Amino acid sequence: MRFWLIAFIIVLVLVGGSTVAYQRGWLERPGPKFLTVAVSRGRVETMVNSTGTVKPVRSVSVGAFTSGPMLEVLVDFNSVVKKNELLARIDPRLFQAAVRRDEAFLKVQKADLARIEALLQQAKNNEGRARKLVAINPDYLSDQEMDQFRFSRMALEAQKDLAVASIAQAKATLTNSETNLIFTEIRSPVSGLIIERKVDPGQTVVSSFQTAELFVVAPDMEKHMHIFASVDEADIGMIRSATEKGMAVKFTVDAYPNDLFEGKIYQIRNSSTTTQNVVTYPVVIETPNPGLKLRPGMTANISFQIEAKDDVLRLPAIALRFQPQPAQVRPEDRHYVEAVITPTETGTRRSAKDKANAARSRFNRVVWAQEERFLRAVPVKLGLMESQYAEILESELTEGQLIVTGMEARK
């Protein structure tokens, strides 16, 4: 009997000791380890990124007004041309023949006018003599004879007017033929660089309902270029603000990845484009091109600078995305977490006013600082926000203070 009593007491002591040791070990178990980053001072810059295509400021299409075989082409791709410089020549033989034909026709019309003028002068003289005879004696000529003299003179006057009009018509026809002959010489309307040539010697150019395009000349490419970017409608308001402030635009091209180019917003166009329910607007950027590095068709990776501030108190943007569990937060701050994780009513739509208020409230946020075993909420009012940092306008945070950005994974 005594043996069993002693054994029971021993077991009871062992079980009690194990329980106490377990509970003490549980209470002394370390809590979660949080990742922290210090609040710092530095530059905060708001950017909008996009892509665009490099194009000349102006592309002048040079075409052919007349048709015919191409006799010679005097320029090639990348040729630098001056205004009114001869680029190509269409075979002029048919047009030269047309000019000679119209010159001969004009001479015929002038000769016919001289003939009619002579007949008209003769008719006037005959009519004058008849009037003198009638003045001497009315019986010398009858009324019918006088009508013949008068109407003969009037008919020749009408023929003279017709001959004058025919001469004017012949002159116009000659001018048309001479102009067509001039158009066989294809000249550059502007000074610039040939960026496209679409014709070769011997090729027949047909200009009928649509003018045949032979060359494309880009003026002032060495001075400046345009970049056409498509910007999402959600960012157009910020782009407009940057335009009003005269903010710079920086971009790179794949051909020169180590070079950073800079330009300015030249124009925000209203011709929107909708692709898969996404509305974008074209934004034109003007940039200098002194070394001719930028070529038409290049793809530019663009960063629109919206606003920038130097030496401001800032916190890492990742701290704004961290959301702790309620058990990790001290009791008096748990309402910040519970307000976020409480399910919202589904199937309802917010009004425009609610959406605007929600957009404004995104500047009032909460970050977390570690306080012994729990996290403490620190309200902050933010200014500029970018992908890496956010400006602190109002808060109890100070430079160098640690804030929580996440939890370390348990091993």
Give the topology, please.
Elements: H1 2-27, E1 34-38, E2 40-56, E3 60-64, E4 68-73, E5 80-81, E6 86-90, H2 93-136, H3 143-182, E7 185-187, E8 192-197, E9 204-205, E10 212-218, E11 224-232, H4 233-245, E12 248-253, E13 256-268, E14 273-275, E15 278-288, E16 299-316, H5 317-321, H6 334-341, H7 352-361, E17 364-371, E18 374-385, E19 389-394, E20 402-407
Antiparallel strand pairs: 1-20, 2-11, 2-16, 3-10, 4-6, 4-9, 5-8, 6-7, 8-10, 11-15, 12-13, 12-16, 13-15, 14-15, 16-19, 17-18, 18-19
Helix pairs in contact: 2-3
List its salient traits.
conserved putative lor/sdh protein from methanococcus maripaludis s2 fold; 6-stranded antiparallel barrel; alpha+beta; 20 strands; 7 helices; elongated
Helix/strand order: HEEEEEEHHEEEEEHEEEEEHHHEEEE
Q: What summary fits the major beta sheet? A: 6 strands, antiparallel, barrel
Distance between the termini: 51 Å
Question: Would you state the CATH class of the domain at 34-44 and 312-342 and 351-407?
Answer: Mainly Beta
Please count the beta strands (DSSP E, at least 2 residues each): 20
Structural class: alpha+beta
- What is the mean pLDDT? 86
Shape: elongated
Secondary structure tally, helices: 7
CATH-defined architecture of the domain at 34-44 and 312-342 and 351-407: Beta Barrel
Briefly note the CATH topology name of the domain at 34-44 and 312-342 and 351-407.
conserved putative lor/sdh protein from methanococcus maripaludis s2 fold
